[in-house]
């Protein structure tokens, strides 16, 4: 074989390797998985879900049992396993801790934090929240604990602290349908922090009384997230401002799809 033919053969082989290499032609990002926070369930994502589906995304919600941090991470991974391509993983509140741990899954290509915790390895949200206390943390008697160790918000405090910007009937329903969360879920140290290796976005709820907006900013700045503030929004920002939240998620998905 002549030298020129050898060179041409080498170039062809290199092109074949590039074309067949894993990730050479990444699948378009269409899958979004939404993870709720403590004391609520996935129904609160309905408005965000509707907007994202209208925008053409395949959206799945995780229903966490809130029986342990490990159980909630496992529930999230179970849903990730069902996805047929790359995933943008979104978490609200305590769900931010869950996606931080579960987000190391190879299918996850990016993270979005909505008024959420984002601890590092060895950290837990309870200790971090105590260092930057919220209105909830300063309100005596707001959190109740059952004899077997499950937490819930006192009804009136749920209305005034968790969901003050929701229509009253919606806030009443959310309070009366609370998912009681095992108190250990808030104090379990993380063993992984996906935001260290994957791009992230964040939403600060400007009038959040459950997690301090200052703490939310600190999390996002540490993670080098792209983030915005939705002024006047409560901790229920995902339900009270679904269009704005969906826009942040869609922008993240578009950025990852380039």
TrEMBL record:
Coiled coil: none annotated. The keyword Signal applies. Residues 1-26 form the signal peptide. Residues 32-248 form the AB hydrolase-1 domain. Gene3D superfamilies: alpha/beta hydrolase. Keywords: Signal. It comes from Kaistia soli DSM 19436. InterPro entries: AB_hydrolase_1, AB_hydrolase_fold, Sec-Metab_Biosynth_Hydrolase. This is Pimeloyl-ACP methyl ester carboxylesterase. It comes from the Bacteria. The keyword DNA-binding does not apply.
